[in-house]
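Ligand: succinic acid. Inputs:
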Amino acid sequence: MKNRHQEGEVLSLILNKISALNQLQDVNTILNATLSEARSLTRADAGSIFLVQDGQLEFRHVQNDTLFGKKDAGAALYRNVSIPISEDSIVGFSALTKEIVAIDDVYNISSDVPYKFNESLDRRNNYHTTSILTVPLVSLDNRCLVGVVQLINAQDEQGRVTRFSEQSKIWVRVFSNNAAAIIERSMLNHELILRMVKMAELHDPGETGAHVQRVSAYSVEIYRCWAKKRKIPQDEIIKYCDLLSRAALLHDAGKVGIPDAILKKPGPLTAEEFEEMKLHTVSGAALFVNISSELDQMTHDIVLHHHERWNGRGYPGRLVQEGEQWVRKPLAGKDIPFAARIVALADVFDALSSQRSYKPPWDDEKIYNEIRKDSGEYFDPELVEAFFEITDILHAIQKKFR
Ligand code: C2E
Ligand code: SIN
Ligand code: SIN
Ligand code: FE
Ligand code: FE
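Predicted complex:
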């Protein structure tokens, strides 16, 4: 048993973790951070986190130090798996009863419980699960179930697998009640943004949000790979992804002002029509001129500059005065805001791999050739390099947001 002094230290540590979580906005970033913090509180080797969606538990993140080390799970993050809220599984049972489920050895579960341990995951991953602590994420104010965190294989000081201590159950409960409220808040915001995006796409109901969610996820993963190669500190990466994932959702906000006759035209655009289409950057950016946060700034940069090209042949550029006249000069290279360069690559990749009113989807080979050819022309070459390192992740995202 810890003494009072140590207990006070752990509580203030938990408060710090909660307050750090509260600085984040994006649902995925928050889920990932919730899982890491819950694991560090309980010294768990692995874990996963599920969100309640349409009455089921949707798998959202997995971490496993033994299998992936400190690396991300990569493509596994975008797996599409849902588990019913029912007595049959451990996470389902925990969700149903809103109770913590602690199991010392999943291969020796008492016979008087309704749930079973699903051994197939261990077999598939060549991993051995022993102890499990499954914690329902129940928001404090309304007792509403938001999701479930499953922590796997608690470790002692020597790194040996052991059971989850009574103390760690108490800590993780305090932490997860608070995390649940933060997750709930971020989900409401996310829904609101998606609803706005869908409204902007009303004349394009075929896509309904999938395009923007893919572009956002591609952007985040391209950036993450780029940043890791450059040893950018982890908390900086988390913060940047938190902003980027939300800002990228809005990259085409200006398309709301483009007439249907142009937006949905089955064939190629005329030169005039394309000139009008280009205005979606400038008119979209006008929505974000009152810059009062980092998010506004990044959204503005992305909306305005996501069609600039590395070689300076994109649009719309920046207004500069030439004599009496104000003209637009396209940006080039590193003058293009970094976030806009990332979204440019993600957006074109999505346009090429998807069906559009004016084009069929391309096959991978053709897409990769195009992107390789455009490295240093259209796209920042460093980002293209990152792109080709994560094509498995990009494919998993494609499958997830169809
Ligand atoms: P979008 O469909 O989201 O496409 C985004 C960007 O992907 C395009 O920016 C372009 O850089 C790239 N892209 C799309 N399709 C192709 C393609 O077949 N080949 C190549 N090499 N690149 C492609 P861009 O050109 O500035 O176009 C901006 C937006 O204008 C497009 O967004 C789309 O909504 C519209 N648009 C562009 N061309 C046409 C067209 O021929 N017909 C129609 N109906 N709309 C078009
Ligand atoms: C949008 O993103 O607002 C419309 C989809 C597209 O880019 O074609
Ligand atoms: C950044 O890390 O935000 C800037 C990197 C770049 O401009 O290439
Ligand atoms: Fe665009
Ligand atoms: Fe787009």
